Amino acid sequence: MMKIVYSPRCLEYGSPFHLEGPDRVRRAYEILRGLGYRFVEPKPAGEEDLLLVHSREHVERIRRGNFFDPDTPAYPGIYEYARLAAGGALLAAELEGFSLLRPPGHHAGRSGRALGAPTLGFCYFNNLALAVRKLDLPTLIVDIDGHHGNGTQEIFAGDPKVRFVSLHRAGIYPGTGWDSGPNFVNVPLDEVGDELYLKYLDRALRRVGAEECEVIAVSAGFDSHAGDLSSLGLTTEGFRRIGERLAEYGKPVFGVLEGGYIGENVGRDLHALLEGLQGRA
Question: Which of 54, 106, 107, 271 is catalytic?
C-alpha cells in the first residue's frame, strides 16, 4: 500500500461556517486507517522551500496574517499549518506516497492570487508545486480537482521540465483554464461522467507528451465526484480508473489532497485512486 502522509495537527484550525473544514480530512483518515494504510507524519516546510515557488512578499503576508481574503481566512497559526501541508507534499514526493493534509494548494500562485482569480481559493502555499520544484525532474502534473489549478499553471507555464494537465468544470471558480499553452493542457468540461472524462484525460495526456516525463504528480481533488462542489459526474470507480491510466506509464507517482468536501467520498475515492496507481510497473 502507498504510504499516507498525515498529521492530526491539520485538523486543529477552521471555522464551522467554512466549507474547507477539518471534517473532510478527519473522515477520510478514519476510512483509510480502517483499510490498513500506514501513516507518516511530516515536518513543516522551511522558508527556503516556500521561496522555491512563491515570492518573499507572499510568504511574509501569510506569516504575519496580514491579508484579507473572503475564501481563505487569516486563521490564527495558519502560517504553521500551511507550512505543515507544504512539508507533507515534500515528504510524499520523497516516499512516492500521498499527502492527506490541509490546507490545499493548487490555487496559490507565485505572489498569491493567480491568473486574475478573485481569491486564493482556500489555498495559502502551492504544496504540490513546491514539491515538484524541489524534485527538479521532468514531471507531469495531473490536476483532477474539479476546479482549474490556476496557481500551478501560473508557476510552471513555460517551464521546460514540467508538463501540466488540468481537467475541470467549465465556467466556475476561478474562471480560468480555458486555453492551453506549450507545456500545459486545460480541459474545461461539463458534468460528463466517467467514460467521457477518461477519454478527455487520454487525449490531454497524449497532447502534452506525458510519456516523456520521469515523475507523475497528482493534484487529487475529489470535488469532481458526482454531487460535490464542482461535480464532473465521477464515481469512485472513475477515480480507480484514473489511477490505472496513470499507472500505465510505469513512472514514480506521488499525490496531494486538493478539494473534496464530502469526507466519506474523499476517503473512498482516494483509496480507489491509490489502488489504481499501485498497478504501475
Answer: 107
Other beta carbons less than 10 A from residue 202's beta carbon = 12
From CA 220, how far away is CA 277, in angstroms rounded? 12
Q: What does pTM read for this prediction?
A: 0.98
Lay out the sheet containing 39-40: strands in order across.
39-40, 4-5, 98-99, 253-257, 215-220, 139-143, 162-169, 184-189
Look up residue 152 and give its three cell numbers: 500551478
> Is 107 one of the annotated active-site residues of the chain?
yes
Strands (E), the chain: 4-5, 39-40, 98-99, 108-109, 112-113, 139-143, 162-169, 184-189, 215-220, 253-257
Q: Is residue 210 within 8 Å of residue 164, measured between CB atoms?
A: no
| Fold designation for 4-277 | Arginase; Chain A (3.40.800)
Q: What are the pLDDT tens digits along the chain (281 aa)? A: 899 999 999 999 999 999 999 999 999 999 999 999 999 999 999 999 999 999 999 999 999 999 999 999 999 999 999 999 999 999 999 999 999 999 999 999 999 999 999 999 999 999 999 999 999 999 999 999 999 999 999 999 999 999 999 999 999 999 999 999 999 999 999 999 999 999 999 999 999 999 999 999 999 999 999 999 999 999 999 999 999 999 999 999 999 999 999 999 999 999 999 999 997 53
